[in-house]
Write a structure and sequence with these properties.
By secondary structure, the chain is mainly α. The protein is built from 23 helices and two strands. It has a two-stranded antiparallel sheet. α5 packs across α14 and α6 packs parallel to α12. The N and C termini lie far apart (about 70 Å).
Amino acid sequence: MDSILAGVQLALTWQSIGAVLIGIIAGQLLGAIPGLTATMTVALLIPYTYYLEPWVGIPMLIGMFKGSLFGSSITAILVKTPGTPAAAATVLDGYPLAQQGKGEKACKMALYASVFGDSFSDIVLIFGAAFLASIALNFGPAEYTLLVAFSLLTMGFVSGAKIWKGLFAMLLGMMLGIVGLDPVTASPRMTMGFLEMEEGIGLIPMLIGFLAVAEVLRQMEYPRKQLATSTVTFSADPADRRVSWAEFKRCLPVMIKSSSLGTAVGALPGISATVAAFLAYNEAKRSSKTPERFGKGALEGVAAPESANNAVSGANLIPLMAFGIPGDIAAALILSALLIQGITPGPVIFRDNPEPIYAIFTALLLANLFNLILGHGLIKVARKVVGVPKRILFPVVLVIAAAGAYAMRGSVFDIQLVFLFGLLGWALTKMAFPTVPLLIGFILMPILEYNLRISMLIAGSVPNPLGYFFARPAFVTLLAVMALMVVLVFKRILRDKQAARAAGLGSG
């Protein structure tokens, strides 16, 4: 208890509080700029944390991550341009809400969901790091393969369109996801002779092209008079500019479920916040009583991905703190900063460095409070920025899109990919193909292929390959849970069809 109180006192010093504020502000601003993610900035700032105390430097980096995840949702909602890949799923219902004049409501829902998901995962980190990390360590290539394959197979049920169109889009995304070097043999695949393609297709160029550039091309089809109006208009009705208590309560179950899913995903090394956001959106739509509202401006469609991707930010510290294993790139950067400070994460971290660790935990919760307060200010600023006419904003969006794509790898080729994917996204939209299965297929395919190949290599080296999988308790448990979910989904589909048939007979 003395160590906990000492850690709290360290976190409440003006140096620590100031560092968290600086991190939140910088993260929100950087997160709103496509391509300029907080990960890039944190990587540059890590050496400077050597000159700061651990309870000052580490909270500043963590605050930057938290702020960037919310900041990226602002541009995702208002101009259909996610600042980071994790905000791509927020576009699906956030932008339709903005088109209805409810952009401020959508941004505030994203803010509340972000803070909720952050706080949820931070509390789980503080009280259950060792337990969840021990579960995460039981997941190997076989379990990852099963988890990702199940996610891909459900795309046909959540595409919101004809099943064959959803499957086609998913397969197209998977095909794009295997472009680059073979993960095992390192031989080029589908690179068409371009050296730049050997690194694979960048996620940022693809997202910006499919979401932002495709939307600009679609808007340019309208008459010239409409281009003189602002891109997003805000309703004068006060109800459209705030999230009511009734709306928050309606979204609360979705936020709890999505935060739990994001925490579970974040505790698994190698699974990103982008994957968590799409999985949460998928589950929110599947379990909704009104799934037809998703994609047309459902608040739950904003709350789900924002809760999930922010929950990952705290959960990916779980395996780091408990076992010294970073969950993703963000956690790896935090690991570097801790090592610079002479703190080695792992089972003995709470014994050897209790005060700095509890100070960092306290700073996590402070960062959530500051994110909530400063987020309202960012929403007001963003509202004025997007009030400019379309004929001025669209060229700016295209320039920012090109700059964001170039910033990731310093490659002009990525700028070309942005506009190529913009044309492809515009064409798919014209033919009513859903983009969600395509994006999820692209994101999950590298994870699926890598873990499947590794699983096959391991299984091929034992006398009984099939026994390798079913001898793993985590694999069998996961398989049973997913089989149960499939049965429940099909039962619900049959029940809905029977209800629709009965309604049709009744009206006849």
